[in-house]
Structures are given as structure tokens and as C-alpha cells.
Amino acid sequence: MTAHLLRRTGQALLVLWAAFTAAYLLLQAMPGDAVLIKFQNPELGLSPERIAEIRSYYDGGGYLHTLLGFLQGDFGYSVETGTPVLDRLAEGLPATAELAGAAFALAVPLAVLIAFASCHSTRLRGLLLAVPSLMVSVPVFLLGILLVQLFSFRLGLVPVIGGSRAQQLVLPVLTLAVPVSAPIAQVLARALDHALAQPYVPVVAAKGASRSRILWRHAARNALPPALTVAGLTFGELVAGSVVTETVFGRNGVGRLTEQAVDSQDTPVLLAVVVLAAAVFVLVNLLVDVLFPILDPRLA
């Protein structure tokens, strides 16, 4: 187990390095120059030499210097505001973590409900299994707009502006949770079907166990590993989904920060956001690998 964990940790660090390198190279190759956009203004009276100095300051001194800075927790400075990138991330991260955590907490029970309901009801099985495909096919921005139209303008249940902290979370959480729950529900439903087709199921049924007991006590345990893998993957996607969701609902989080950085070509901020998203993805999947042997001792 220790050797497996060390191997997976090494792979995780390699993935983080690859994500940093790819993001750095792509951002450097991106057309446009954020420094020129902000500082090449005749009213500022800056000479080309001074602009070149400012550019070298924000570029971080090259790849190795930037990489060492990231390893030490120094993400550089935002071109847009001139403040440390770490401070800007610290301002937006709590709101995004709150949104992503609440969305994931809602997505998992929703996926479990759909998957288990499809196994319980043979009449509604086809309809229930079609629900995840519909959920995942709706664009996030469109889903957010539709939810605002329905719950805010039509039903008047959630205020568009103002409201309590909980009310401000309802629609963004639904917008993120619905598409995230879809792949989990699909994989869990297929895994339950596979588990129910195993030879042990008729044996347990012959001993007098009801279908509900077989489903929840026996099949669910064998169906969890693949569903847990997909859940880990989708949790990593919540950071990407928050970009659109926070923009639609005007929330000041990492997603909104990313949208502003793209508009201003603030490459230090964009690089930090990419590495942050990769770190969340890697850590969650590393946690899933640790949980696998607990759920299924055969994998230990």
C-alpha cells in the first residue's frame, strides 16, 4: 500500500509539472501583450526601455525562475492590478470552494437517486436512464439562464439581486450540480446492472433477501469503485465549470477571476489558475486511489 501511494504521489507531481509546463508555453505563445495593452499609453509617458523592464518584471524571469517561484508559493504579480497573484486567488478561492463543495454535495445524492431508482423501477427505467444524457447535454450557461428565468422571474422563489447567502447559492449550485451528476449517474447505473448480473445475486435472493437489500447491501458496494473514479474526475471539472457559472451569476470567485484575466490577457493569473485546477484534480484523484483499497480489500 505504501509503495502504491508513493508511486501515485510521484505520478501526481509529474502531472502537475506537465500542466504547469504546457500552460506556461501556451500562454507565452498567446498573441497579444498585456503589458503593452496597459502601459503603452502616451499619457503615461513611458519609454520603450521602461516598458521592456516592466514586461521582464511580469514575465517572471523565464521558465525556470517561474517554476521555482511556484514551488516556493510565489505566483508572481497580476498585470491588471499589480498585486500578488496569490492574494487575488485567496480572495476568490473561498467563494469558489463554497460553490464547488455545495454543488458536489448535491450532485452525488442526485446521481445515486437516479441510478438506484432506475434499478428499482422497471417501468421508468428507460426514462430515468435518459435523464443523465439530457442533463449533460445542456450547456452550463444556458442551464443557468433557464434556472434564473424559472425560479426568479416566473416563480419568484429566489431573488436575482440581494437575498441571503443561502439564496445566492441556490441557483449557481443547481447549475453546477446538474451536469456534474449526469456522468456519475450513468456510470453508477451501469455498474449496478453489472453487479446485479453476478452469480452471487441469485444465491443471496434464495436466502430470502429482498431486492432492496441486495441492491443496497451487496450490489452497491461492488458498484462504488467505478462511480467513485468518475466522481473524482467530475470534481476536478468543477473549477472549470465555475468560470461560466460565476460569470452568469456575478459571483466573485476564481471563475470570475479567470474570466477577467482572459479579457485582460493577465498571463500570471491564468497560469496560477491552471496550476490550481490541476492541483485540485490531482489531489482528489489521489484521494480516490487511497479510498479504493478501503472499499474493496482485494485492491490492497
From TrEMBL:
Domain ABC transmembrane type-1: 93-292
Compartmental location: Cell membrane
CDD domains: TM_PBP2
Primary localization: membrane
Domain of life: Bacteria
Record key words, sorted: Cell membrane, Membrane, Transmembrane, Transmembrane helix, Transport
InterPro entries the record matches: MetI-like, MetI-like_sf
Key word Transmembrane helix present: yes
Gene3D superfamilies registered for this protein in UniProt: MetI-like
Name under which the protein is recorded: ABC transporter permease
Source species: Nonomuraea longicatena
Membrane topology: Multi-pass membrane protein
UniProt similarity note: Belongs to the binding-protein-dependent transport system permease family.
Residues passing through the membrane, by range: 12-30, 99-119, 126-149, 227-249, 269-295
